[in-house]
Structure formats: structure tokens, C-alpha cells
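pasting for ref
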Amino acid sequence: MHGVFDIVGPVMIGPSSSHTAGAVRLGLMARKILGEEAAKAEINLHGSFAMTYRGHGTDKALIAGILGFSPEDERIREALEIAAQKGMSCSFQTVNIEDAHPNTAVIYLVGTSGRTARVRGASVGGGNIMITNIDGYNVELTGRYPALITIHHDCPGVITQVTKLLAEANVNIAFMRVSRQNRGETAMMIMELDEEPAAEVVEQCRQSKAVDYAFAIPAI
């Protein structure tokens, strides 16, 4: 089932739903994952993004998202200048990533507190995106649903603890994926939800045994 915006495209500042609107959403998702304003952004561009990013305004769009702008925000055109005014350092590099979607960006952010995030994602058409890696963990995150993300020790019982807290808060899980780099070490769990969890639920997850960190991302 498709909606009208899947057919005619999103409300946006042009010229391209993939190279502009989708790029804004990639930057915005990276900003949400960082969890604070960015002081530095280093962006690697692959494929079509790498070849046309200046002509299609992909560089401006990505930075606009990192600044927190929406795809229809008229300030997208001045995003690079606004970032400079805010003291945010921005750099772009073209790269070749094997087997990657042609509209792929790898976004490395440093926040104002020193917190960092490395996010890889692609603009897959019609303004839609797919985040495929967060800080080295393979994920599948579209931004269409609110999400709860945990970083935890890879041991039995953690998933049960977190999902029980969501169930007690009457929050339904739409999709869930767990990724780990090595058995018995650190893992990342992403739960896309039917509604955004309350702040107290996120805090309870942070206090769960074996959970190192938990944070929520609103739908974008």
C-alpha cells in the first residue's frame, strides 16, 4: 500500500527527492543519533552522491539536516553559511564503498560536548532513507517510526528486560534488530515503535542490568 507522497514525492526544497530531501533526512537522523548539536561534521560521499553533490545541493542538504532543518525548510540553501556562523566545521570527501547503494553517505559527527557518532546511510528514493550502520553496528533504520536504541553487554536476559519495560508502558514494538560485533562483548538493539517512549521509560532502560546506554529517536 502506497500513500500519495510515495507517488508524487515529499514536500521539500528541490531539486531532487533523493539528492536533496533524502539527504536532509540522513543528516537529521545522524543529528538525532548524536543527541546534541554538532561542532564538527566529516562526510564521505559514495556513488551518485559523490558525482553530483554540489550540483544537486546534497552537501547543503546533509548539513541542513545536521543543523536540525526539515526537508521543506527554506534555509537549506544557506545551510553551509549557517553552519559556519554557528562555528560548525564541515568537510566532504568522495569515496568508493564496495556494494553500497549509489546514494550513500558516511557521516562522522562530533558534538558540542565531545560526544561522537558515525552513521552510514543511503537515500533510497522519494525522500526515503535507510540507515545501515551506527558506530560500527549493522542496522536497518528508516526513520519512519520512533525508535529506542540500547547499547548493552551481549548476555542473556537483556532483551527480555527492555521489552518488558516497553510492554509495561503499553508501547508496542513494530520492528526489532540486534547487532553485535563479537560474541559476549557489546551489542546494539534497535526497536522501532508504534509511539515514542516516555522519557521515564528510556531512563528505566538505562538503569536495566547490562545496559550501558539507551536513547530514543523520534520519527523524522
